[in-house]
Design brief:
This protein is an alpha+beta fold. The protein has 20 helices and 35 strands.
Length: about 750
C-alpha cells in the first residue's frame, strides 16, 4: 500500500478540541432547540409537532387522535429526542392558560391553571390542531418556504412555517440556551396586526408610534399589567425589561374574591403563602380563606376579613407585596433573525424583519401560483389546438407508431402539451369541453394578469399583505385579556398596620408573666396568678400598637400584642420571647406612641424624661435605655401627657415626699439622667433608704400613698402643696413612723 493510500490523521490539542466541540454544541442548542425563529415564532420541536399533526390530517375539523401517535411521528420522523420533552412541548401548546392562542386542541386531562404539570400521559389524551394553526400551515404547500432533510435524510421538513401573522409576538416563548436566553411575552392579535399595518403604511414609524397600537403584552388569565406606560415603551425600545402582573379582585358580601391570577401562578401555592402568614399570626385581620374555583370559574379565591372594619385595599396591597398575587416577568426579545443568527431586537426591528419575511413568503406564493397558472395555460393552449383539429389528432393517434412526436411536429406542440393530449379521456372530446377550456383560459389569464400586477408593484403587494392581515384579525382576533392599569407599587404593611384597632389590656406579673385581655374594663389586679407570683402592673392601648416592656436593668423591649397569650389563662413568661440580663426583672409596660413622653427613674433617685420615638427594637435582647449601676433598679415607667403643666411626686422608702414640675427634668434619649431626690449617701448605699415610688400628677389629681402593711393614704391637692419644692431636694417627711412606703399612685379627680 502506497503512502497516498494512508488515511490523513488530523491532530488537535485537547483545548482546541473541547473549545470547538463546546461551540458546536452551543450553536446547536441556540439554533435547533432553545430560540424561536422570527418568521413563525416557533422552536424546532414546536414546528415539528405542528407539521407532523398536519401531515397526519389532524386539522381543526378532523377527529381527535391519540397524542402518543403524534409524539411517535415527531420522534420517528423529525425530532430524535426524548418523548417526555416532546410531549411537554405539545401540552404547553394545548393549554389555554399557557398559550395566548393555543395551537393544539386537546381532549382529556391537559393540566390545570393550578397545576399545569398535572396532565395525563400521552397514551390517555387525544389531540388535533386548533383553527389558529391554519395561520401557520395554510400556505405550506405553495412554494413559500425552503425544505431541508430530516435527521436521517429520508424525509423533508420545512425550515420555517409560512406564518401569516407574527406568531413570535402573539404567543411569545421562553427558552434557555448556552450563554443566552429568550423571554418573549404574548400579545394581542388586534394590536399586533394594527402595528404591522402601520409599518406597511408608514415604514418610518418609531417604536413610540407602534406603541400607540401595541399597548403592552397580553397574557392569558386576565390579570392586570401595572407596569407604567413609560417603562413598557422603554422595554420595547431596548428589547429588554420586565412586566409586572397583579391579580384582580373584587368585594362580594364583605369578602375579597380574587378572580384572576398573574400568568403561570398557582392558586394552591398562593393560598399556602397566605395560610403560612395566618399561622404565623402575621395576618390577624384575615379570618378565613378558601378556594371555590371550578370549571365555570377557573380562579375564585375567597378571603374572609375578620370584620367589616378591615381595610381591604391595604390588606390586598400587603398580599401583593408578600405573595405571588403580584409577579414580575422578564422580557428579552432574543430571536433568530432572517440571517440565521440570534439577536435581541426592539419592537420595530422585530416587526420590520417579520414583514420582510412575510413579503418574501407572499412573493414566493405568488410566483408559485403564477408558475402553476402559466403551466395550465400552456396545457389549455394544447387542448384547444387538439379540439380545433380533432379529426387529424385522432388519425395520428390511431395510425402513427410514435403519435407524440408526430403531434409535436404537426401542430408545433411542446412535449408537455403532447403528453396532455395523449392523456385525455374520450369523454372530454365532446364539443362542450371546448367552451369549458375557453372559459378556464379566460379565468386563468385574468389571474395571471392580476398576479403579474401584484409582483410588479410594491404598493399592490403591500395592499395584499395588509388585506390578508386584516382578514386573519377578523377571524382570530379577540379582546385584550390583561387590562393595563397604572397603580402604586405594592408595599408590605407593618404588623401594627395589619391589625385591627381593638381595645386591649396587657397584664404583667412580678415574675415576668404576661397576658393580653380584650377591652379596657379588665381589673388587672384581681386576676389570678401562679402560686408565689403576684400582680406587677398593667397597660391599656390598641391591639395594632406595639408594647414596650421595661426591665429593672434599664433595657426596653418590643412585642406585638397579638402574639401574647390570652388572659383566659395565667399567661406565659416574657423570657419565652425576650432575653433580659441575668437577674433582671420586668417592672412595667407601655403601649408605644411616638408622640408621647415617658418618665424614667431608678431607685437611686436619678431619672429623665424620654421621647417614645426610637424605643422600638426587634432584638430579643432589647436596647439599653437607662444607665443602672451599683445595685440600682429601674422603676415602672410613667407616661407624661403635658411636660409644661404636670408635676412629679416622688417618695423615699422612709417617707420623704417631694413634688416638683416635670419641666425641671431633662429631656434625654437615654442615659442616667439627673438627680430627682436627695438621699443620704450611707443610707442609699446600704439599702436603708431608696426611691420607693414616683408618679406624674395633673393640676387637680390626688395622690395615694401605699404602705407595706397595706394601709393607704389619700392626699388632696391642698395637702400636696406642703410638699412642693425643687428637683433634687430631700423633700418633706410624711406624718408617719410606723411603716415603710411601697409606692405612690395617681388618683384622677372626677
Amino acid at each position: 500500500m502506497s503512502e497516498d493510500d494512508n488515511p490523513i490523521e488530523e491532530t488537535l490539542s485537547l483545548e482546541e478540541f473541547t473549545e470547538q466541540a463546546y461551540l458546536d454544541y452551543s450553536m446547536y442548542v441556540i439554533l435547533d432547540r432553545a430560540l424561536p425563529n422570527v418568521g413563525d415564532g416557533l422552536k424546532p420541536v414546536q414546528r415539528r409537532i405542528v407539521y407532523a399533526m398536519s401531515e397526519l390530517g389532524l386539522d381543526a375539523t378532523a377527529k381527535f387522535k391519540k397524542s402518543a401517535r403524534t409524539v411517535g411521528d415527531v420522534l420517528g420522523k423529525f425530532h430524535p429526542h426524548g418523548d417526555t420533552a416532546c410531549y411537554d412541548a405539545m401540552v404547553l401548546m394545548a393549554q389555554k392558560f399557557s398559550y395566548r392562542y393555543p395551537l393544539i386542541d386537546g381532549q382529556g386531562n391537559w393540566g390545570s391553571i393550578d397545576d399545569p404539570r398535572a396532565f395525563a400521559a400521552m397514551r390517555y389524551t387525544e389531540s388535533r390542531l386548533m383553527p389558529y394553526a391554519e395561520v401557520l400551515l395554510s400556505e405550506l404547500g405553495q412554494g413559500t418556504v425552503d425544505w431541508t432533510l430530516n435527521f436521517d435524510g429520508t424525509l423533508e421538513e420545512p425550515e420555517v412555517l409560512p406564518a401569516r401573522l407574527p406568531n413570535v409576538l402573539l404567543n411569545g416563548t421562553t427558552g434557555i440556551a448556552v450563554g443566552m436566553a429568550t423571554d418573549v411575552p404574548p400579545h394581542n392579535i388586534n394590536e399586533v396586526g394594527a402595528a404591522c399595518i402601520c409599518l406597511l403604511d408608514k415604514p418610518r414609524s418609531t417604536v413610540d408610534d407602534l406603541c400607540e397600537f401595541i399597548k403592552g403584552p397580553d397574557f392569558p388569565g386576565g390579570s392586570e399589567i401595572i407596569t407604567p406606560t413609560s417603562e413598557i415603551r422603554e422595554m420595547y425600545k431596548s428589547g429588554n425589561g420586565s412586566i409586572k402582573l397583579r391579580a384582580r379582585w373584587t368585594k362580594e358580601d364583605g369578602n375579597i374574591v380574587v378572580f384572576a391570577l398573574p400568568y403561570q401562578s398557582s392558586s394552591s401555592k398562593i393560598l399556602e403563602q397566605i395560610a403560612g402568614q395566618m399561622s404565623d399570626k402575621k395576618l390577624p385581620m384575615l379570618e378565613d380563606l378558601r378556594d371555590e374555583s371550578d370549571h365555570e370559574n377557573p380562579v375564585r379565591l375567597i378571603l374572609v376579613p375578620r370584620s367589616n372594619r378591615v381595610d381591604c385595599d391595604s390588606l390586598m396591597n400587603h398580599l401583593f407585596a408578600k405573595t405571588d398575587l403580584e409577579k414580575n416577568y422578564r422580557v428579552n426579545l432574543n430571536v433568530i433573525g432572517l440571517n440565521g443568527l440570534p439577536a435581541v431586537k426592539n419592537l420595530k426591528s422585530l416587526l420590520v424583519e417579520w414583514i420582510q419575511f412575510r413579503t418574501t413568503t407572499v412573493t414566493r406564493r405568488l410566483n408559485y401560483r403564477l408558475k402553476k397558472v402559466l403551466s395550465r395555460l400552456h396545457i389549455l393552449d394544447g387542448y384547444l389546438i387538439a379540439f380545433l383539429n380533432i379529426d387529424e389528432v385522432i388519425r395520428i393517434i390511431r395510425n402513427e407508431d410514435h403519435p407524440k412526436h408526430v403531434l409535436m411536429k404537426t401542430f408545433s406542440l411542446s412535449e408537455i402539451q403532447a403528453n396532455a393530449i395523449l392523456d385525455l379521456r374520450l369523454r372530454f372530446i365532446a364539443r362542450l369541453e371546448e367552451y369549458k377550456i375557453i372559459d378556464e383560459q379566460k379565468e386563468l389569464d385574468e389571474e395571471r394578469k392580476s398576479i403579474e400586477k401584484l409582483l410588479s408593484s410594491k404598493v399592490r403587494l403591500k395592499t395584499l399583505i395588509k388585506k390578508e392581515i386584516q382578514e386573519d384579525i377578523r377571524v382570530h382576533g379577540d379582546e385584550r385579556c390583561c387590562p393595563l392599569v397604572e397603580r402604586e407599587a405594592a408595599q408590605a404593611l407593618s404588623e401594627a398596620q395589619l391589625l385591627t384597632a381593638e381595645a386591649i389590656t396587657i397584664v404583667l406579673s412580678a415574675k415576668g408573666w404576661v397576658r393580653a385581655a380584650k377591652g379596657h374594663d379588665v381589673i388587672a389586679s384581681e386576676l389570678s396568678f401562679k402560686p408565689g407570683d403576684e400582680f406587677q402592673g398593667f397597660s391599656r392601648g390598641k391591639s395594632n400598637n406595639s408594647v414596650l416592656f421595661f426591665d429593672s436593668a434599664g433595657r426596653v423591649y418590643t412585642l406585638q400584642p397579638h402574639t401574647l397569650p390570652s388572659a383566659r389563662g395565667l399567661g406565659e413568661p416574657l423570657t419565652g420571647w425576650l432575653s433580659p440580663p441575668d437577674g433582671a426583672l420586668f417592672v412595667g409596660s407601655l403601649f408605644h406612641d411616638e408622640t408621647k413622653h415617658i418618665l424614667l427613674a431608678t431607685t437611686f433617685g436619678y431619672g429623665f424624661v424620654a421621647s417614645e420615638e426610637g424605643l422600638v427594637s426587634k432584638n430579643k435582647a432589647g436596647k439599653g435605655l437607662v444607665s443602672v449601676k451599683n445595685g440600682a433598679q429601674l422603676l415602672p415607667p410613667i407616661e407624661v401627657t403635658n411636660i409644661d403643666e404636670e408635676w412629679v411626686a416622688c417618695v423615699s422608702s422612709t417617707g420623704n415626699l417631694l413634688i416638683f414640675p416635670v419641666a425641671e427634668l431633662p429631656l434625654l434619649p437615654k442615659g442616667k439622667g439627673q438627680k430627682i431626690m436627695q438621699f443620704p449617701t450611707k443610707k442609699l448605699s446600704s439599702g436603708e433608704e431608696y426611691l420607693a415610688g414616683i408618679v406624674v400628677l395633673g393640676q387637680e389629681d390626688h395622690l395615694k400613698v401605699i404602705y407595706d402593711d397595706g394601709r393607704e393614704r389619700l392626699m388632696k391637692t391642698t395637702e400636696q402643696e406642703d410638699y412642693v419644692s425643687s428637683r433634687a431636694l430631700r423633700g418633706k417627711k410624711l406624718p408617719t413612723k410606723r411603716s415603710l412606703i411601697v409606692k405612690l399612685e395617681r388618683v384622677i379627680k372626677n
